[in-house]
Amino acid sequence: MKIIQALILLLPLFSFSQKEKIKSLDINLTNYDYPFSVQFLELNIQRQNLKMAYMDIKPDNYNNKNIVLFHGKNFNGAYWETTIKALTKEGFRVIVPDQIGFGKSSKPDNFQYTFQQFAENTKKLLDHLGIAKTTILGHSMGGMLAARFTLMYPETAEKLVLENPIGLEDWKLVVPYKPVDWWYESELKQNYEGIKKYQMENYYDGKWNADYQKWAELGAGWTTDPDYNKVAWNSALMYDMIFTQPVLYEFKNIKSPTLLIIGTRDKTAIGKPLVSEEVRKTMGNYAELGKKTQKAIPNSKLVKIPNTGHLPHIESFDQFIKPLIVFLKQ
Questions:
Q1: Which end of the chain has fewer CB atoms surrounding its CB within 10 Å, N or C?
Q2: Could you tell me the CA-to-CA distances from 90 to 65, 93, 94, 329 in Å, in that order?
């Protein structure tokens, strides 16, 4: 009995030590080092002066081909480190923006988030860098943006790559709408334990390792900052954007050669807690969604990565990078 009581008394200390382990990060990640040099593009949009962070890595063996990497909603450009190294080794110039509201980019107090605005911001960046043509690769939410960019700027998007993109189904058809204030209150409750639990269940099928831990800690670092409410508000606005601005109905209009890289274990879908168990089972079935999307996008190819969840470039890197490089060199 005394041993049990002692363990109970120690539980708060274990919890405290975990919180101590999380490095507090300011909302623009000025105290977090990215794997490559970060530059900033000044943008005057929606009556605000904002800064868009980006990495631009041009290798010595540059092959005159470019690729832009769009991050997902729960991430930023830093998680492309291994991908950047592999692509630059092959001679590709790699451009990795943090979209407004993400990573090291500005976190505006008031902003109307649209995929069209993100796409236009990225086009301004490419014009600034003198890049006329490039492959566009998007993961998760970045996949929705990559599709929108390709539709808006077909002359720029030579090729399109979608890695486990969200938005392959229209959730608003089955999930009840929640206002931005609801998402905001939900985001304010975020912490390391919640982030890890979500990612372990939805991304990694119960698995966990130091690499997964690194990205969970990066997201959790924000939650300890006094200005985290700004991050939470921007995140809430983005949830509304994702939920209300589907792009899948326009897949048929994509002209660029397209590669779909799909981890078939993925079950990611927004709004699962808001629906019945019966409806939940029908959501986020990437094994089927990948095949359906490949049929919807003309001139597209599907690469399935079995036993892999939402982040192939983190969980199954070799299976992700090999077909990507083959596609880029075609």
A1: N
A2: 10, 9, 11, 9
Please tell me the distance from the alpha carbon of residue 28 to that of residue 46, in angstroms, as a whole number: 20
| DSSP line for 265-311 | T----TTGGGS-HHHHTTS--HHHHHHHHHHHSTTEEEEEETT--S-
> Domains of the chain (ranges plus CATH)?
36-174+248-329 (3.40.50.1820)
pLDDT tens readout for residues 27-62: 999 999 999 999 999 999 999 999 999 999 999 999
pLDDT tens digits along 50-59: 999 999 999 9
Number of Cβ atoms within 10 Å of the Cβ of 108: 19
**Cα dihedral sign, 96-69-77-33:** negative
CA dihedral for 262, 263, 269, 272, sign (positive or negative): positive
> Which structure tokens are listed for 111?
């902003």
pLDDT at 5 over 60: no
Tokens of 81: 């480190």
Spatial CA neighbour of 66 closest among 135, 137, 130: 135
- Return the pLDDT at 21: 75
Give the alpha-carbon dihedral of 272, 275, 279, 285, to 10 degrees: -10
Could you read off the pLDDT of 284-310 as tens digits, one per residue?
999 999 999 999 999 999 999 999 999
Q: Is the pTM of this model over 0.85?
A: yes
Strand order of the sheet with strand 157-165? 39-45, 48-57, 93-97, 66-70, 134-140, 157-165, 258-263, 300-305
Please provide the DSSP assignment of 64-106 as one string.
S-EEEEE--TT--GGGGHHHHHHHHHTT-EEEEEPPTTSTTS-
Residue 301's alpha-carbon distances to 38, 121, 156, 298, 314, in angstroms, are 33, 28, 20, 9, 21
Q: For the chain, what is the total number of helices (H) and then of strands (E)? A: 12, 8
Average pLDDT over residues 240-257: 98
